[in-house]
Amino acid sequence: MTLFINDYSEGCHERILEALTRTNREQTTGYGTDPYCEEARAILRREMNCPGADIRFLSGGTQTNLIAMTAAMRPHEAVIGAASCHIFTHETGAIEATGHKVLVIPDDEGKVRPAGILAMLEEHDMAPHMVKPRVVFISQSTEVGTIYTREELQALHEVCRAHDLLLYADGARLGVGLTAKGCDVTLADMAKYCDFFCIGGTKNGALFGEALVLVNPVLQPDFLYIVKQRGGLFAKGRLLGIQFAELFRDGLYYELARHANEEAMRIKAALTALGARFQVDSPTNQQFIYLTAAQADALRQRVTVDEQWRRDNTVAVRICTGWATRPEATDALIAALQQTLQ
Amino acid sequence: MTLFINDYSEGCHERILEALTRTNREQTTGYGTDPYCEEARAILRREMNCPGADIRFLSGGTQTNLIAMTAAMRPHEAVIGAASCHIFTHETGAIEATGHKVLVIPDDEGKVRPAGILAMLEEHDMAPHMVKPRVVFISQSTEVGTIYTREELQALHEVCRAHDLLLYADGARLGVGLTAKGCDVTLADMAKYCDFFCIGGTKNGALFGEALVLVNPVLQPDFLYIVKQRGGLFAKGRLLGIQFAELFRDGLYYELARHANEEAMRIKAALTALGARFQVDSPTNQQFIYLTAAQADALRQRVTVDEQWRRDNTVAVRICTGWATRPEATDALIAALQQTLQ
Amino acid sequence: MTLFINDYSEGCHERILEALTRTNREQTTGYGTDPYCEEARAILRREMNCPGADIRFLSGGTQTNLIAMTAAMRPHEAVIGAASCHIFTHETGAIEATGHKVLVIPDDEGKVRPAGILAMLEEHDMAPHMVKPRVVFISQSTEVGTIYTREELQALHEVCRAHDLLLYADGARLGVGLTAKGCDVTLADMAKYCDFFCIGGTKNGALFGEALVLVNPVLQPDFLYIVKQRGGLFAKGRLLGIQFAELFRDGLYYELARHANEEAMRIKAALTALGARFQVDSPTNQQFIYLTAAQADALRQRVTVDEQWRRDNTVAVRICTGWATRPEATDALIAALQQTLQ
Amino acid sequence: MTLFINDYSEGCHERILEALTRTNREQTTGYGTDPYCEEARAILRREMNCPGADIRFLSGGTQTNLIAMTAAMRPHEAVIGAASCHIFTHETGAIEATGHKVLVIPDDEGKVRPAGILAMLEEHDMAPHMVKPRVVFISQSTEVGTIYTREELQALHEVCRAHDLLLYADGARLGVGLTAKGCDVTLADMAKYCDFFCIGGTKNGALFGEALVLVNPVLQPDFLYIVKQRGGLFAKGRLLGIQFAELFRDGLYYELARHANEEAMRIKAALTALGARFQVDSPTNQQFIYLTAAQADALRQRVTVDEQWRRDNTVAVRICTGWATRPEATDALIAALQQTLQ
């Protein structure tokens, strides 16, 4: 039975494995000082039109977020995010464990808005009795699959500049975000508007790995110390460089993300035709719907999706495609939905 | 101009100063090992009918809360409180700085309720991706001046027992709580229903100091190491023992709290007669009202109260009496309110 | 020019890549809940004769050590190690960053001895003013290439039992330790005498990965929360399970380690014949010598070794073989040493 | 039996109690914003000839040190001290609990020397695998009673400037340091050569309290947030301001310290005449000697001193006078020493 529960159920795109195999017995120095990491950094800097970016390759998302936050804040500083953001809900208090409070704002689309930031600043003006907001944390795409447009990013950038805040984007699902229909944001825009952000490999074709991009020079000094201290400095750093070079050398990253989105849009169209009740309007690889308990139970007999919660007769369900989703599996899922929801 | 902005604007009750003066040149050993701390502990244990309680004297409220939370939780554990609770709003992220998330529940009366705890547990059942609730944090009296009845305490106690949670009460304002009209809770009840709690001296007649009571034996081993490590082990611990012995030897603590409440009730009666709009119905020394901007500005010419926030034409105001509030000052405040609000 | 600077200069044994390729498009659930992790755990539990062991697969050594220490200690507790131990010297204060002090004992062979532990306990008996030792940290093999015998492990085990200490072994180089000439310790002995330990994959044939073994049940509850919180919970956990299953299914792990040791012993014999001055007598893949500055400069023209430090005319050099060291490269190194040192 | 075990066995100088009594019922605002704190800051700034100094009053020594270190360092930075320094030996790992490693250098006189700093920097040049030294921690007077001369302070200042290090002086016993015979350092010198330091009240006539002086502007921004977060922001801050104003208004602080030193010098002279074996040559209120077990046992019958450790037949003893030591008690101690050691 095919899994539609997340976008990391498979290994990686075969070109990654081929590249790893091809380079396997070469000797290189460790910790990201090798030529493959250099190549990947050069490719990414060019693509994001940002020659001064410091780029570090890390192995997982929670690790990336906690290292980024650790390096960016003094002890009394805090990060502002949406109430649904990953660091607030699904990282076991990793940010608090580094000593920092996460201040959240409810939002149906999982976004942080300039007005929310301003209100949060106003609520925290009672120095020194309250934490001092320092970072704004967004996700592109968000936890509920929505995307920030260029205009929205620019507006966040401006409010951050005006109030001495740093803008961070969690790009664990950056691929599907940038390639979504209606998204006018490029990698270069990410680098233009964010002080730092990450590019997720794990959920988009890599075996594993995230690229953390430090655009703002204030974030760069001594950064690698923090990486090492928090257990994020990969001995065989080249494994990450090889992967990111492969993903970005000729657009494979975007191609894979586009595929995930296309399969999701097919599912979304089918759901719309079925009159399904959506939790949110998502243009990316995650689709969120409500089912009745009976529908959910019936669906479960035929396909595996992600049941988020169940209360009374309502079941919240997430359907997630990925870079590796087979079209026939999508066909089967759609058939199952049709039989279940009709 | 008299201050009604808090309950720690003066020094201490004169009996405290006299006791400090009387014992001043005596030599004792340090860190709470002296006979005065022993005496204070004995008095308190008797009063709370809890011979097994471990009692530690600390110098301030934030310190007390952060030490209690540090000792009680493993790194992945979290504390549940009301959205208005002091550790969430006014301690500069002290709990997060020790590594722990504070999970909050909005409540108009500033209370944590059993249903809220159960909902929070349900929301956090996705181990290991979410923090694990371990402590329930309440305040007696609360941040908005309300009190928990014995029945409410018992209900919290039971839900905590049933779900392996520890119940902590911040008693920075325990005196006014226990002596409020309508409060049927005694110090012995606090010890019966809470796993740990503190008895605030700073806001009720002491020069400074809080007594942290560890009722549940699971909290006692090695506790003093944590006190020392977080900078809370007072060299001249006797200063704290002397104060608490004096406050509890013959009921001075309650007498002072009753006075604060009585002055507050006079103000409350006057406000009620004036048709004032209360934020909440508080039976203790803090009264919370809404004024118009014009009223607040007029009042400010005659007396100093605590302006919490001001939006559009609404000003939220806290009026706070204390153990040292002079009746004539209360009279003057009431007169000012009458002239302003009529 | 061949690198003899460490044991992680290459990728991995080809069987690992083959297994990853073979399973690549399979779908599994995440976070180590997949069948490959189960298989690897079953193989390891059988091999270590310890059915109750909790085994977690992590991605790197510093991460493994910091997660293990975080989970094992309360805030006031400390870890005892040799002055040369990795957590004290080369992990950027990762253990201190989790809040714990590392207490160290100088030792020429990089070992912790029972007498040293007892002395450390005696020095720290001034509760609550000093940290409380809780974990004894050893490495097998050690940072200077030496090994603990079974008798030594048993003695440490006993002193730890007697003083309520937990014994942890960093096995980043466990393979070369267990297969060294003169080592009578098996994986089952590790599980018998240690409360917890790790089995390093990164330096012995894996692409990356460490297996953390929790033998003592006191360490097991809620452990995975800590893994997640510190960024160590691999989304595609199966990547680690696949590797460890492959390494331990039929002894590949030991075979690779034996090769590394054999190449090192050839180098050691050559050095001995040349009258080289050894820093320490190491039976494993790391050989430590002193050279003159002239010798070091000459050697550097022909081969790349790890120059540790240089003072006056003395250069401390580490020569490190690995599972992938080609015999011809070793021949060339020996020839270079002969030309340089004679 | 008089205690000579430390310098905080009594309360405070009577002028402190009188000032507290005189001001007791006055109302002031909290957290150090009151006129008494302002006055104390003005007096101290004038005395140290440093109008730009930010001065914060805290309640205890461990608290002061941990707040100072927390504010001064980023997560990967470390502090260098003497092996005997208080933060390394007697603060229960408080600095490590804030995340920072304490790097120590053995020294018979308890001092940090420029050469030791340079060696430590050289040992830690392997970025990013090692912590980065950032603060040099000294004590004036030191843990073993010795003092830094102006020349020594200046040399430390210069090596710190040259290597981007911050110089911190723990002045828990600053009074006896500055007034010791042979000490040419003034409070103004402390401010000139240190980036930050504290002035201890607890051990020199105050009821309690330390003044933390931030000279270097780089340390000043947002400092009070850290104070609050770590539980060090005293609600009734004025209690501290009143005490420091009293101690420094007309030289009471120095007068009390001189007394402690004089009594200690009488004891030292007697010990010298008796041929006692000193651990170190201390010009301040702490005298350190070795006794035989028989001598220590005999002495203990007559007077209470601080037995540090006992091994074989040797007992290390600290004799500590204070601002409150009665001359007759010193006479009795000297008589006891004469009877015991002769």
Question: What's a concise summary of this model?
Answer:
The structure is a homotetramer of 342-residue chains. Chain A has 342 residues and is an alpha/beta fold. Helix content of chain A is 41%, strand content 19%.
Describe this structure in words.
Four copies of one chain form a homotetramer. By secondary structure, chain A is an alpha/beta fold. Chain A contains 14 helices and twelve strands. In chain A, the strands form two sheets. The first copy, chain A, has a seven-stranded mixed β-sheet with strand order 2-8-7-6-5-3-4, sandwiched between helices. In chain A, strands 1-11-12-10-9 form a five-stranded mixed β-sheet. The longest helix of chain A is centred in the last third of the chain and has 22 residues. The radius of gyration of chain A is 20 Å and the shape is globular. Chains in contact: A-B, A-C, A-D, B-C, B-D, C-D. The interface between C and D is medium-sized, with 20 and 20 residues.
